[in-house]
Structures are given as C-alpha cells and as structure tokens.
C-alpha cells in the first residue's frame, strides 16, 4: 500500500460534505461550476488538502451553503438557516419541520414527539460544543488557513485539529449522555428554560435589572484622598440587600418554571 493511501484525510467532514454537494456531477463539471481547477478539486475530494479561504468562499456561495456547514461547525446547510442551526443545533430538515409546526395547530403534539424521540440529545450535544465558535473568533485566520501549505506556519493548526476531532467528540458525548438519564433531564430543563416565553416571565415576575455602579472618570488612576469619605455606606448596604432579595426572587421564579415543566411532563406520561 502506498504512503498516500495510508495518510489520514485532512478535515474529512469537509471532504464528505463537498462530495455530497457534488452529487452526480463529474469532478470536472463540479470544478467548473465552482470556478476551481480540476486538480484542486481532486485534492479536496481526496482529503489531501485543507481548503483556502478563497475557495471556501466560492464553494459556499455557488452551492448556497454556509461555510460553517462545509467545515462541520453547523448541521444547517442553507445559509439562511445558519443562525438558527447554530443557536439550537438543528439541521435544515429539523428547522424546516419546526417552521411548519409553527403554522400547524397540532404543533405542540409534534414537538412533544421530537422531545420523546431522543433527538434532543443531539441538539443538546451541539449546544455543548458551542465553544468552537469562540475558538474560531479568537483565531487570527478565522475559518481556515490562509495558505495551502500547512508546513509554513500560516495555518491555525489548533482550530483545524478541533474541527477534525469534532465528529468523534460528538459521538462519545452522545454515548455518555445516553447512559446518564438524570443529566439529560437536567440539561433538557435548562435548554427549555432558555427558550421560555420572555413576555410571559415579565408578566408573572418583576423584571430583574442589574444595578450598575456609576462611572467615575479617573484618567490618572489616582483617587483623591477623601474619595472613600464621601461614600454613603448605609445606602450601599441597602442596595446590596435589595440586590440579594431580587436575586433570590429571580432564582425562585426560575425554580417555579422548572417545576411547572416537570409536572407538565409527568402529567403527559
């Protein structure tokens, strides 16, 4: 077996999704559609090369998909669904279903079936891996390396490695979640609570507003000698008590919402 055959493909999820977009077209036809050379297309589909930024942009625009989908950072292929897919971890198919459910009087029944089917585990897993978005934003090279030659130090190898390992991490995490029912239940409650009707919460509970301390300009970073003498400590103590009381009310409100969700789920069983 040749050395090339033994080499692991670079970013296999990009290769697989690019091949899926190719469909029945030949390499030459697909390369012509995307405005990429036939040889480069062969490297990409063989997993021998990481896409550069220019080619990634061409592929995303001409195939009408998001760059994040091509790199495996989102399961939503359509660019218009990218933000929804990132926020909820949903594929295009799931997003289309949810849009139909929103117009369907039986939507609550349909959504309950989705929750009970176990697919929510995958959605939560995507949510847990949202740290990749932060990693991408911190990268000087954003989505992909700016050079095809990975040996010249232009690539953000940490980001490339994270993307390559993502499918394995997802699989392992899903298996671990399936074996921990209480953890799934807890995550589901947190997940649903985040999507709770904000207007309903405002009607039922006093809106919590974090107290912001006044900004004191001090360009020289030197406080006057009498600075602390002018502080009204009784007023500060009263504000602290008010903050703690409002925080306790907020926690109680969230607890009541979670209890309501638990009782509702128990009653539907």
TrEMBL record:
Q: Which InterPro entries match?
A: Cro/C1-type_HTH (IPR001387), Lambda_DNA-bd_dom_sf (IPR010982)
Q: Which Pfam families match?
A: HTH_3
Report domain HTH cro/C1-type positions.
28-70
Q: Name one GO molecular function term.
A: DNA binding
What is the protein's given name? Answer: Helix-turn-helix transcriptional regulator
Name its species. Agathobaculum faecis
Q: What is the lineage of its organism?
A: Bacteria, Bacillati, Bacillota, Clostridia, Eubacteriales
């Amino acid at each position: 077996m040749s050395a090339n055959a033994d080499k692991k493909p670079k970013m296999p999820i990009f290769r697989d999704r690019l091949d899926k977009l190719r469909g029945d077209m030949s390499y030459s036809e697909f390369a012509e559609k995307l405005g990429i050379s036939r040889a480069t297309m062969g490297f990409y589909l063989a997993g021998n090369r990481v896409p550069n930024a220019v080619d990634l942009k061409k592929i995303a625009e001409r195939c009408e998909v998001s760059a994040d989908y091509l790199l495996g950072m989102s399961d939503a292929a359509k660019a218009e669904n990218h933000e929804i897919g990132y926020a909820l971890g949903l594929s295009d198919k799931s997003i289309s279903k949810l849009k139909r459910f929103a117009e369907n009087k039986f939507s609550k029944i349909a959504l309950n079936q989705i929750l009970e089917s176990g697919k929510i585990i995958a959605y939560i897993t995507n949510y847990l891996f949202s740290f990749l978005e932060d990693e991408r934003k911190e990268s000087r090279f954003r989505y992909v390396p700016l050079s095809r030659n990975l040996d010249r130090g232009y690539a953000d190898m940490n980001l490339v490695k994270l993307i390559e390992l993502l499918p394995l991490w997802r699989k392992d995490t899903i298996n671990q979640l399936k074996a921990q029912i209480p953890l799934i239940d807890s995550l589901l409650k947190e997940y649903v609570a985040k999507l709770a009707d904000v207007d309903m919460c405002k009607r039922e509970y006093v809106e919590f507003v974090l107290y912001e301390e006044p900004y004191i300009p001090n360009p020289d970073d030197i406080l006057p000698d009498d600075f602390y003498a002018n502080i009204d400590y009784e007023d500060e103590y009263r504000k602290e008590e008010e903050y703690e009381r409002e925080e306790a009310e907020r926690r109680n409100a969230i607890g009541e919402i979670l209890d309501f969700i638990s009782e509702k789920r128990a009653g539907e069983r």
